[in-house]
Each structure stands twice: as C-alpha cells, then as structure tokens.
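Async update (no meeting this week)

Hi team, since we skipped the sync, here's where things stand on the single-chain job. The sequence we agreed to prioritize is pasted below, unchanged from the tracker. I ran it this morning and attached the output directly underneath so nobody has to dig for it. Comments welcome in thread, and please keep replies under the output.
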Amino acid sequence: MMQPLHERWQQMSQRERSIVLVGGIVVGLSLLFVLVVDPLMAKLDRLERQAVRKQKDINELAQLTQQYATKLNRLTKAENRMPPPDSQFSLLTFMEEAATKAGVRDWITGMQPQVQSLSQGYQETAVDLRLEGVQLPELLALLVAIDQAPYDLQVRHLQIRPKFDNPIYLNTTVRVLSYAKG
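Output:
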C-alpha cells in the first residue's frame, strides 16, 4: 500500500509536493484542533463557569451562616427573657398586679386570657385587657409596668378612644403577649 503512494510522490513535481505537504499540514492541524484543542477549551470554559457558580454558592452559604448565627443569637436572647419552664409565672396574674400597681384596676371592664401552642415547643399567652374611663397618666403607668416586667412581654395591640361625653377619659383595649417554652 505504501509502495504506490511512494511512486506517486516521486512522480510529482516540487510544486505539487509542496501543495500536498501544506495541505497535509493544514488537515493535520485542523484535526488536532478539532479533536484535541477545541474539547479542551470547551472543558476549560465549563470548569470556569462551574468555578464562578461554586464561588457564588460559597458566598451565599457564608451569608446564610451569618444570618443563621444572628438569628440563633436573637433566639437565645429571647429565650433568656422567657419565664423558665419550672417557674410559676402567669401573665394574667402579672397583669392584675400591674393594673393594681398602676391604679387602673377599678377601670377594668374585661380581662380575657388566651393560650396558644406554637411550633417548636413554644407557647404564646395573650391577655386582652379592656379599660373604660381611664385617664392618660394611669394608662401610661400601666404600660410602664408592662415594659418593666421581669420577662419579655409585648404589647401587640393598643387601641385608645376618648369617651364621647368627656374626652379626658379614655376607653382602651390592650393586648399583651408572653412567650414561654412549652
């Protein structure tokens, strides 16, 4: 098989040999590019895109780690301000004592407790307190007493309406929340 090709090469002129040689080099380089270089370049591009995507994932994971640590810290602080499970803290009793201390016990027309279990073993206790005919200084004293509670209490709803016949007196609804580990 090589013999006929060798004879044919010998019969070609110098110019034909140069053209065939240059064509062979071009075909060889083209095959080298198509079979070796181009797949390597495509793989390199794909790896660079993956590296960029992985770097974004790492940055996002670092942000999520920081957010998690912040929220865990907030949860720990909130749990430290909750009544311990073995304590005898009652939001209803505390609200009665705070109302007595603030001098608004006589204006209480309704006090309704509500207990609700939340996810993750927490319990929410709410007390809806209705006051009629209270004055602003006494109401503020009640709110200060709630704010200075030994545990974390939240005033979730506060509605104040002046009485129609005498605006010095107020009709008020206060919703106070307390959370505890259940």
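Quick observations from my side:
The beta strands are 108-117, 122-134, 153-162, 170-181.
The chain has a mean pLDDT of 90.
Reply here if anything looks off.
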